[in-house]
Design a protein that fits this description.
Elements lengths: L8 H11 L33 H12 L5 H10 L13 H8 L1 H10 L12 H11 L3 H4 L5 H10 L3 E2 L7 E4 L12 E8 L4 E6 L8 E6 L3 E5 L6
Antiparallel strand pairs: 1-6, 2-3, 2-6, 3-4, 4-5
Helix pairs in contact: 1-5, 4-6
């Protein structure tokens, strides 16, 4: 999705405010949106900057309501294994859901394009976002269609690191780079295998499906840590 100049600066500022983190101006396109064997999205979180005490109380109250566990999120992600895209790279429930979401409007304001563009775009980040939303953990997992922005969200919220944990959001660079800007793909960590690899659940793999994979840690840029319930 090419960047459009028609979006006013005020809309971009609104999108950034809603995100609660710095967002990149990188053009969103089929090659820029997360792709299992092509290109990915976002990173770890720290508490957002609070405007005032009332906002602090609101955030604390929301935090106290967190009940979703890593195990519940992984169970939902795992239940989607086998879901496949169609011959033109679309047709998944994750793309349809994202294209209709409030977040799509915000990322369009940030990156340009239209809602229809998401229907056939690379969808690994949309899969992670869908799982978070349907599990009731959107505020912990975040949502975006661009893996780099998703990783930056985690990082800007102080929830990004280099230790694989079950339920963490893993960001890959196929080149082996450790830079967020080079992220190509995103998924969930199921477990650390203790041999230099991790078992993952990912959408939009090379076969255009949700799959369980074993990946080398050498391809991992970092991990986003959702604030799960204990």
């Amino acid at each position: 999705m090419a960047k459009h100049s028609l979006f006013a600066a005020s809309k971009k500022n609104l999108a950034r405010a809603v995100l609660g983190a710095t967002v990149v101006s990188t053009v969103l396109g089929v090659n820029a949106v997360a792709h299992a064997e092509a290109l990915p999205h976002p990173a770890a979180h720290a508490a957002p900057v609070l405007a005032d005490r009332s906002e602090d109380v609101r955030v604390k109250s929301e935090k106290e309501k967190i009940t979703v566990t890593a195990q519940q999120v992984l169970a939902l992600a795992k239940s989607q294994i086998g879901t496949s895209e169609n011959s033109v790279g679309g047709g998944t429930p994750y793309q349809r859901w994202y294209s209709r979401s409030q977040r799509a409007a915000e990322t369009i304001a940030r990156d340009g394009g239209t809602r229809a563009d998401y229907l056939n775009a690379a969808w690994c980040a949309m899969f992670v976002s869908w799982v978070g939303d349907k599990a009731g953990a959107r505020s912990q997992i975040g949502w975006d269609a661009y893996t780099v922005a998703h990783a930056k969200w985690f990082k800007n919220n102080g929830r990004f690191g280099d230790v694989a944990k079950p339920g963490s959001v893993v960001f890959f660079s196929w080149s082996g780079s450790d830079r967020i800007r080079d992220i190509n793909h995103v998924g969930f960590v199921e477990k650390d295998n203790g041999d230099g690899t991790i078992t993952t659940i990912e959408g939009n793999t090379g076969r255009g499906r949700v799959e369980e994979r074993v990946r080398p840690k050498s391809q991992v840029v970092g991990y986003g840590y959702p604030d799960y319930a204990a």
